[in-house]
Structure prediction request, 348 residues.
Amino acid sequence: MKILALESSCDETAITLLNTSKGSLFLEKNQIYSQVDIHKKYGGVVPEVAARKHVETIIPLLEENLGKNKLKNIDYITVTSGPGLITSLLLGVTAAKTLSYINNIPLIPINHIEGHIYSNWLSHKKLVKDSNKYFPSLVLIISGGHTELVLMKDHGKYELLGQTLDDAAGEAFDKVAKMMNLGYPGGPIVSKLAEKGNNEKYNFPRPMMKENNFDFSFSGLKTAVLYTLQKKYKITKKDVNDICSSFQQAVVDVLTKKTIKAAEKYNINSIMIVGGVAANIAIKESIKKESSKLKIQLFVPELKYTGDNSAMIAVAAYYNLINKKGKILKGKKMFNLKPNSNWQLTKN
Ligand code: KG4
Ligand code: ZN
Prediction:
């Protein structure tokens, strides 16, 4: 089976051609055009600029990926239909609908968060071989827009255990970086500087860590960093490193504590960490240490699949198809598909 996937939910335009012959997942083509250098100068993603760039990029990327007439061998087209920036989503969805309709190829809308979850199937053959062995899986989704703990009971079966009440984990990293003019995106920069700092220098709050639920909150932590900075007359390089390190440690402690508490409560067979922030070594190591004490298998995608990409969307579509989940749109029906910037995975 061949699946063409399009992803344009934020500031990456991505196209993948997935071939699933003989039960394996083979990426015949996998391209990502990142707009990060464009948005850097604004200190964050500017939706209007992102959408315009998707317009410029999507057709040349498709031509490069497929050449002319290569759509002939494609069985399905899939596209990220939400959540994300509405103007960015619209570009991918419109392109996918047009290609599907003209070429009479069924269209599969995929939730971006579900894509992040399936990024693990790209990196771990044992999940592809026997997914059932690892269900139910406790999934920690940490990205620029989301922080959620989800119980994945089976393919396409999700229960929301808790989520952030304000900022997402990645957003907190980005905002802390912005406060110190460190650059964008903040996560990789803060985590790099954190390596050189003292993680105990500042005793930042661990919001909601001890509360008896699986929700998160990062805005108070962000404000605590701001107040610390405001109190200083001069901020040295050492201060920056120590602040990054102490901030990161607070995030690590909260994410680890809540994930492990959920792992102990629910009868699970694996833990997964997914999303852009899953690139963070301190978070991965901390959860790895605690999950191995419980003898629970931990899955984290390879670095190249933690951030936004379309390979994960293609794989999610494949598992939706073979497990008869989600929607398959054909003919004129696909024109009813509209991107949903707030599409919640656990409410479909
Ligand atoms: O999943 P993603 O690529 O996009 C969304 O769907 O939001 O996540 C992007 C987020 C950004 O906030 C970025 O700063 C964060 O992931 N990130 C990191 C690291 N690498 C990327 N956060 C912490 N540590 C990292 N090493
Ligand atoms: Zn994402």
Summary: The two ends are 26 Å apart (CA to CA). Residues 112, 116, 143, 275-276, 308 surround zinc ion (ligand 2) (CB under 6 Å). The chain has a mean pLDDT of 96. The beta strands are 2-7, 12-19, 26-34, 76-82, 107-111, 137-142, 147-154, 157-163, 270-274, 297-299.
